[in-house]
Write a structure and sequence with these properties.
Blueprint: H1 3-24, H2 62-68, H3 74-98, H4 100-114, H5 118-129, H6 133-159, H7 163-170, H8 175-213, H9 225-232, H10 241-269
């Protein structure tokens, strides 16, 4: 991969690590109180040694809220990637390898699921089951799985009569070995990785959009990059980072997902 892609991967790993660690720690163990950290006298303060990115219009520390906001999308994003990979790879592998009526049935179910916009499915799930970022991640993963299934199906179907597959069968290798290693692991893993990165970026955009709109996603005083942006937008203070910090965080994270995804595609073409 190129240097820019490696930098993007490192940044994604840092964001993911922060999200996992802060998500596992309860609020009482954190050196920052989300609810109590309101100081009107420090409202809109510029960056300083005490507040690296300044404060918002309620006097809350922007840097700490930016860090803790990763909890809103890292865990749900990983859940979405896991569900989409497991469901999509399983469905695509079975339908591509076996073919026939099974392939027709799996592809029909995938087409029906994919025909409903993902955003609509997420909103419908929230309306029925309540507002939860984990629910958003689960529904987004299931809704994205047809795209993974179709990609895996197309790849496996095109390789069914490839020379290395015929040679493996001639040498007596079992179908699970051929499918699991030679087809899925060797020929599909980077493709699945690209889809997972695209889904992670999509989940971040989805969660921040819902939180920005309000009424969905993460609610105040819990931080999300989306509600941080909405909460500060329109207020005139001495601290521009109240708006720019979450906006840049969203853009950089999604941009890094695209960089690494493109690098995986280039690696395969090479």
């Amino acid at each position: 991969m190129k240097l820019t892609a490696w930098l993007g991967l490192i940044l994604l790993m840092i964001v993911g690590l922060i999200g996992v660690v802060t998500g596992l720690l309860p609020d009482g163990w954190l050196p920052y109180d989300i609810v109590a950290d309101v100081s009107p006298s420090d409202a809109g303060a510029a960056p300083s040694a005490a507040h690296w990115l300044g404060t918002d219009h309620l006097g809350r520390d922007v840097a700490w809220r930016l860090v803790l906001a990763t909890r809103a999308f890292v865990g749900p994003g990983l859940l979405a990637c896991l569900l989409a990979s497991v469901i999509g790879v399983g469905a695509g592998a079975v339908s591509g390898f076996l073919g026939g009526p099974i392939a027709a049935l799996v592809r029909y179910l995938s087409t029906v699921t994919a025909s409903i916009p993902r955003f609509v499915l997420v909103l419908l799930a929230i309306a029925i089951n309540g507002n939860s970022t984990w629910l958003i991640g689960a529904v987004a993963g299931v809704a994205y799985s047809p795209a993974v299934a179709e990609a895996v199906f197309s790849r496996i179907d095109s390789l069914q009569r490839a020379d290395f597959v015929l040679a493996a069968r001639a040498h007596g290798l079992g179908p699970f070995r051929i499918l699991g290693y030679h087809l899925l692991w060797v020929n599909c893993r980077r493709m699945v990785g690209r889809h997972a990165l695209n889904l992670f970026g999509y989940l971040l955009l989805l969660e921040t959009t819902l939180s920005y709109i309000g009424g969905f996603g993460v609610m105040e005083p819990q931080p999300s990059w989306g509600n941080m942006l909405a909460f500060e937008f329109g207020y005139r203070t001495d601290n521009i980072w109240g708006v720019w910090a979450p906006a840049l965080a969203i853009w950089v994270t999604i941009f890094c997902c695209g960089l690494v995804s493109d690098a995986l595609a280039e690696r395969r073409r090479g």
